[in-house]
Amino acid sequence: MSALFLIFLTHISLMLGTYQLTDLILCDFSDLTQTRVGSIFCALTTFKQTCETTSVMDISPRLTGDEWQNWANLLLQRHYGFTEYQKVPDNYKGDAGIEGFTITSGCAYQVYGPEEPLTTEQRFKKHQKKMTDDLRKFINNHVILSTIFGRTKIRRWVLLVPFFDSKQIVQHATKKTEEIIAANLPYVDNNDFRVVIVGEEAFACERDQLLKTNMEVVSIVPDEIPPQAIFDWGQEHDTLVLTLDDKSSRIPTLINDHMRHSFRNRMIQHFLEGQNLLGELRKYPTVYENIRMAKSECERYLATEVLLATGSPISILENSLEKIRQVVKAEVSGVSNYTIEAVAREAVSDWLIRCPLDFPERVPHG
C-alpha cells in the first residue's frame, strides 16, 4: 500500500470516522492517482463542512406529535408488557401530565416529539417547556392522579423524546425533582424520586423487535402532483432548484434546456409525491420508522460512494435508485411494490435536491 494511499485514508478517517473508512478500504483503489486523491479530498472536505452546518447525514423527518405518541406507547408496552405498563388516554379532559405509568416499578411517562429540524438550543427550549408544563399538571391534578395511581408510588417521572442533546435539560430535570419532592404529593415516593429525560435509543431492542415483526400490509398511492404545484414549489425553493439544475447540467443525455427542465420538474414531482406518501405512512409507525431508517442508512454512505464512483451520471442515478429499492425491500416488510418504488424515487430526488447525491465530473454539452 503506497504512502500516498495511506495518507489519503488517514485524512478520510479523520473526516468521516472509522465506520465509513471500512467501506473505503473495501473499494477498488487500483486507479487512484495523486490528482484523483486531491479532487476527492477537496470534495469530501466541502461535504463534511456542509454536514456540520446542515446535519445532512440524517435529516429524514422523525415521528412527531400524535405519531410519536403512538410509537412511544408501542415501545413502552413492548418493554414492560401490557399488564405492567398502563396507558392513560387523553381523549377526555387531557392527560393529567402523564401518558402512562408502570404499576410495580412506579415510572410515570410523558412523551413528546417536537417538529424537527431544530438546533440544540431550540430543542432544549421545547423540551424544557414541555417538562415544566406537564410537571405543573402532575402537581395540580393531584386529585385525579391519586385515583389513577392507586397504591402505586411514583419513583420516576420520565419525559420520553426521540432524542435530546443538551445537558441543560438534565439540569432542568434535577431542579424540577426538588420541586416535586417539596410538593409532598401522596402518590410520589419522596425518598427515591427523580425527574429524568430519556431518548428513543434507550428502547433500541424494543424498537428493533417492533420493526422486524411488522405484519401490516400497506399500499398507498399518492395523489398526482399538478403542474401548478410543481411550479409553485420551485418558486418558493429557488435555491434548491438551482442546485438541481446544476446537477442536471452534468447529465450528458439531457442535451438541451427543454430536457433539463423536464428532468427538473420530474424530480420535484417525485419528491412531492413521496413526501405526501411519507405523510400517509406516519399512520403506520413501524413501517414509517423502518423506511426512515433504511433511507438514512443509504444516505449515510452515499456521498462517499458517489465521490469514488467512476461511472456516468446516469449509472450513478440508476445505482442509487436500485440500492434504495433493495434496502427498503429487505428492511421493510408489509409494503407494496408501488409504495417501495415511490419511496425510492422520493429518496433519490430528495438527495439530488439537497446535496448527498452529486456527479463529480462535469460533462460539457455538445
What does this entry look like structurally?
The protein is built from 14 helices and five strands. Helix content is 60%, strand content 6%. The protein starts with a helix and ends in a 13-residue tail after the last helix. Helix 1 runs parallel beside helix 3. The protein has three domains: 1-54, no CATH class; 65-212, Trna Endonuclease, Chain: A, domain 1 (3-Layer(aba) Sandwich), CATH 3.40.1350; 214-366, no CATH class. Mean pLDDT is 79; it is low at 1-60 and 362-366. The protein has helices at residues 3-16, 18-25, 34-54, 65-80, 120-140, 142-149, 167-183, 204-212, 227-236, 238-248, 257-281, 285-308, 313-331, 337-353, and strands spanning 85-87, 100-102, 107-111, 156-161, 194-199. It has 366 residues and is of the alpha/beta class. The longest helix is centred in the C-terminal third of the chain and has 25 residues, at 257-281. The protein has a five-stranded mixed beta sheet with strand order 1-2-3-4-5, sandwiched between helices. Strand 2 and strand 3 (107-111) form a beta hairpin.
